[in-house]
Amino acid sequence: MSAPSQRTRPLLGHCASQLAQLESARLTLQTRLDGGRSWEDRNRLGQFATPAALANDIVTAAVALLDRRERLRFLDLAIGTGAFYSALLRVSARPLQAAAGFEIDPHYAVESRRLWSKTPLDLHIADFTAATPPHSEAEKSNLVICNPPYVRHHHLARSRKDRLQRGVTDLGTPLNGLSGLYCYFLVLSRVWMTRGGVAAWLVPSEFLDVNYGAAVKRFLRERVTLLRIHRFHAADVQFEDALVSSCVFFRNEPPPAGHCVEFTSGGPLSRPHTTERVVAECLRPVGKWARASRRNRRESRTSVGIKLGDLFEIKRGLATGCNDFFILSPVQARDLRIPRRFLKPILPSPRHLDVEEVEADSRGDPVVEPRRFLMECSLPPGELERECAALWDYLEAGRSQHIDQRYLCRHRRPWYLQEHRPPAPLLCTYMGRSHGKNGGPFRFILNHSRATAANVYLLLYPKPRPSGVLSCSPGLLRTIWMRLRSIGRGALVEEGRVYGGGLHKLEPRELANVRVDGVIQALEETQG
C-alpha cells in the first residue's frame, strides 16, 4: 500500500450550512453503522465513535499548536465516519492543502468514502500499520488526529502482533507484548508526520500507570516533544461504552532542553479544571505519570503516616478459573450432595456485600447474604472418585462443558485445584465506580470470619512484625480499619488508575503505597 496522495483539491464552494448538513448526515450514518454491529463486536474491534463536541475541541486545540502560516495536511489513521475531518472543515479557517484517512473496516469505510466524496479527503480502505509510509516531507502530514481502535493485546492475532512488534522495533521503540493496538498506532504514526508536525491522540489513560506503558512513555519523553496530556474526569467522559479517558498532544521533533509538559485535567480542553507544568526530564518511563504533576507537592509535605505495605502483605484474591462452576450457593451444594469438607466459605462479590464488617457464626462462616462456598479439593482424581462419587460426578460434568480446558484450569494439576488464599482480616475492593456504596470507588472490609475471597478483592495480611502486635491487640486492627475507611478518596484514586465511565482500579502494589495517617501513633500507644 503506497502513501495517500497529498494533492490539493478545493472544497467545491462548501459553505458553513453545507458543512453543517454534511455533519448531520455523518451523525446519522454513524448511528446506523453502529447499530449494524453488536456491542460485543465493536468492543472486540475497538470501535468507539468520537462524540462530535469532543472532536471539535480536540481539533481546535491541535490546530492552535501549529504555526499560523502553515497550510494543513491532515491525516486520520482510523477515520471511521470522519468525526475529526468534519470538525476540521467546520472549526478551522486555515487553508487545507490535503486530507487523508485510513479505515480498515469496509463496514464504515465504504459509506464514509461516499459521504466525503466531494471534499479533498483521500480515504483508504486499508490497515495503516501495514501501509508504506511516505518518503518525502512534502508527502507527509503536519496534523495527525486520531481516536485509534482500542483493541486489547489478546484480541490481536499472533501474526499481526508479530508484524506490529517488528515495525515498532525497527523504529527503535519495542513495545511490551501486553500493549494494546493504540500503543502501536502512537509509535508508528511518527514516520507519517513532517518534522515539527503535531499529533493529537484520544486514548485510554491506563498507559500512564501500567507496566506495559513504560515504552510508550519513553517514546513520548525522548522521541517526540510531548506537549500536553489532558485527563478527562470520569464523570466527564463522553464514551459510555469505552475506556478512552485522555488526550495526548505531541510535536514530531526531539524535546528541547528544559522542556515542560502540560498536565491538565477535568472539564473541556479549552477550560481545564487544573493545569500544571512538569519538566519532561523528571518524568520517568517506569513512574506513574498520572500523578507526576502532584509529586513535588506531595513529597514536600511532612507525612506522619506509614504505607500500608509496611504493615501488610497485599495479594489479589484467588482466581477460580470459572466462578459459575467453582463457587456454589448453599442450595446448589446441597442439591449436588457435596460434603462440607470440600466447601470453603467465600465472600460474595462487592456488589452483593452490603456490610463493611463481616461477623462470623459459631463455625466461623460469614454472617452475610448471599452465602457462597468455594468448591475446594486437592485429592488426585483416582482417590477422589473412590471417596466422593457426588463431587466426582460434578467434576465430570464440568469436563463435559470443557471447564478443564479453560486457561487457568488447564495449567493446574489436578485441573480443579484452587489457589491457596487463607482468610484475610482486612480486604479492599479491587475496582469500583466513582460513586460506590460508600461514596467512593473503594471499600475496606473488616473480616472476622474464615471466609476467603475471589480476585475482585485485595487481601491484606499482617506482616510478621506488626502481626504479633495485632494478635495481642484486636482493637488495633479495628483502629487501622477505621483509619483506612477515613482515607480521603483522592489518596486511593491517586495511587490507582481510572478508566472511562468512572471505573477505578487498584493493584496490590498501588494499595501498598497508600499512607495511613495516625497508625504509627496507634502502634506506639499499643506497644507502650
Strand order of the largest sheet: 3-2-1-4-5-7-6-8-9
**Proportion in helices:** 25-40%
Kindly report the oligomeric state of this protein: single chain
The CA-CA distance between the termini, in Å, is: 75 Å
State the CATH superfamily name of the largest domain: Vaccinia Virus protein VP39
Stretches with pLDDT under 50, minimum 5 residues: 1-12, 295-304
Largest sheet: 9 strands, mixed
- Count of extended strands: 22
- The coarse overall form would be elongated
Number of domains: 2
How many helix segments? 20
Instruction: Give the averaged pLDDT, no decimals.
Output: 86
Report the structural category.
alpha/beta
Question: Percent of residues in beta strands?
Answer: 15-25%
**What would you report as the Rg, rounded to the nearest angstrom?**
27 Å
CATH architecture of the largest domain: 3-Layer(aba) Sandwich
CATH-defined topology of the largest domain: Rossmann fold
CATH class (first level) name of the largest domain: Alpha Beta
